[in-house]
Design brief:
This protein is of the alpha/beta class. The chain has 2 domains: about 170 residues, Glucose-6-phosphate isomerase like protein, domain 1 (Rossmann fold, 3-Layer(aba) Sandwich); about 130 residues, Rossmann fold. The protein is about 50% helix and about 15% strand. The chain contains 13 helices and 9 strands. Strands 2-1-3-4-5 form a 5-stranded parallel beta sheet, with helices on both faces. Strands 7-6-8-9 form a 4-stranded parallel beta sheet, with helices on both faces. Helix 2 packs parallel to helix 6, helix 3 crosses helix 6 and helix 8 packs across helix 12.
């Protein structure tokens, strides 16, 4: 399936993800959960970052995203470890869940099959199977739905988060024409410009997702930072000014009142340093819906950018080459 069709399927994937979640029942942990570790890389890992930020005001246990082969020493019998690997074969994630089993953590897997599914099955661990066969970055909705459902079923958050996630599909369908029109404008803005992506700190995962999509689909480099932190360092870096650089502001519309001033000040300063400034606004009733609206615009923009750059949005040969080299190591 081509990238544009995969992106167009996002709202339907949200609904299908909820259908999968409705059929899953997780075992109760043997020990009280005091902390949560989500292990995942790339398109699988970003779901953990998004969900942990969406639910941070409701969760009463700390949640950490691990994107490496190892995890902190505090992980043990009172830790919930969620291994999220779309293919089921992500080696960093497999390293972590294998180590998590040794320290007695409560483990749940999210995958389309592969070694992770076999590991969970062989060790009588809960796991959720999602539809496979596509680039992991296009399967975001499936990991999001399962992650929210895990937190709901284990009693950490209210089920209304699943309802909001479901309503996002309707929001995206109802605004499809507007989303695509804005995405075309954004793609044209991104063409031949090194872009700094700025967001509120609680939307950092959305900015990271944007960076990943522009990297993989559009084949460009870009960076991201957050407000207010960038006001304490990076804002000074614009001092000399340069029209080869641009700034993309993700305006979620729900900023802390002090950051509203910081946002406008930052926009004004950067406009005086470069002609390339783009403010992307969103729609939605809450952080989940606003995030998914922004993600939808960015996903489409990354595809339109691939067309402008005359590149194949699905091609990731350099990543596959690296995995090939690693597979030869003992």
């Amino acid at each position: 399936m081509t990238m544009d069709k995969l992106i167009a399927a996002f709202p339907n994937n949200i609904k299908e993800s909820l259908e999968i979640a409705s059929k899953v029942n997780f075992k109760a942990p043997k020990n009280a959960i005091q902390n949560v570790l989500i292990c995942g890389m790339g398109g699988s890992g970003i779901g953990g970052k998004l969900v942990s930020q969406w639910l941070q005001d409701e969760l009463n246990v700390p949640v950490q995203l691990v994107q490496d082969y190892t995890f902190p020493s505090y992980v043990g019998k009172n830790t919930l470890v969620i291994g999220s690997s779309y293919s089921g074969d992500t080696e960093e994630t497999l390293f972590c869940v294998e180590k998590a089993l040794k320290v007695g953590a409560h483990i749940i897997g999210i995958c389309s099959g592969g070694k992770l599914a076999a590991f969970c099955k062989n060790n009588e661990l809960d796991y959720v199977l999602v539809p496979g066969g596509n680039p992991p970055r296009t399967a975001l909705a499936f990991s999001l739905g399962q992650l929210i459902n895990i937190f709901v079923q284990l009693g950490f958050v209210n089920a209304n988060n699943l309802e909001s996630f479901g309503k996002s599909a309707d929001l995206l369908n109802e605004n499809e024409a507007e989303i695509k029109a804005e995405a075309h404008k954004l793609a044209a803005f991104l063409k031949d410009t090194f872009v700094m992506i700025y967001s509120a700190s609680n939307y950092e995962a959305v900015a990271i997702r944007a960076r990943q999509q522009f990297n993989e689909n559009g084949k460009i480099l870009c960076c991201n930072h957050t407000i207010p932190e960038m006001n304490h360092n990076e804002l000074v870096g614009w001092g000399l000014g340069n029209d080869n650089y641009g700034a993309l502001f993700l305006d979620s519309g729900d900023w802390h009142e002090r950051n509203v001033t910081r946002l406008q000040f930052s926009i004004d300063v950067i406009k005086s340093k470069t002609k390339n400034v783009f403010v992307l606004k969103t729609k939605g009733e809450d952080v989940i819906q606003r995030s998914l609206y922004l993600i939808s615009v960015v996903d489409w923009a990354s595809f339109y950018l691939s067309e402008l750059n005359n590149v194949d949005a699905t091609e990731i040969d350099v990543i596959n080459n690296l995995k090939g080299q690693l597979s030869n190591l003992k």
